[in-house]
TrEMBL record:
Gene3D superfamilies: 3.30.160.250. This is Type II toxin-antitoxin system HicB family antitoxin. It comes from the Bacteria. Residues 7-103 form the HicB-like antitoxin of toxin-antitoxin system domain. It comes from Bombilactobacillus folatiphilus. Signal peptide: none annotated.
Length: 126
């Protein structure tokens, strides 16, 4: 089951671009040079703000979001699983491998982390 979050955002037009407010995300402000850029930045901010969470803040209904005369309200969605795939955190893991492979790998200047990552992606078909 996908973990997709949907939140309202408010675009505040500026002389150049937009300031973006995300009312349901603490510290939820960003900006963009165009409307498309501003909405992309909003998605990135939501993903970043919620990347370590398993429970997400409840979204305010769009009709309940109050805006100024020139402001624009809309919604953005973020597939949190896809966000994690596109913005992976690295985690240190201790692994055991035969000593002779370590020696050969060092001689050939193999990046063990890269090889393990590639092998896991292949094995997991991701």
């Amino acid at each position: 089951m996908k973990k997709v979050v949907v939140y309202p955002v408010i675009l505040h037009p500026e002389d150049v671009g937009y300031t973006v407010e995300i009312p349901d995300i603490q510290g939820g402000w960003t900006q963009g040079e165009s409307m498309s850029d501003a909405l992309t930045m909003a998605q990135d901010l939501i993903g970043l703000a919620l990347e370590d969470d398993t429970e997400y803040p409840k979204a305010t209904p769009l009709e309940d979001v109050q805006i100024g005369d020139k402001d624009i309200k809309t919604i953005v969605n973020v597939d949190m699983d896809e966000y994690h795939r596109q913005n992976p955190k690295t985690v240190r893991k201790n692994v055991s491998v035969p000593e002779y492979l370590v020696k050969l790998g060092k001689e050939k200047e193999i990046n063990f982390s890269a090889v393990l990552t590639e092998a896991l992606k292949a094995k997991l078909e991701v």
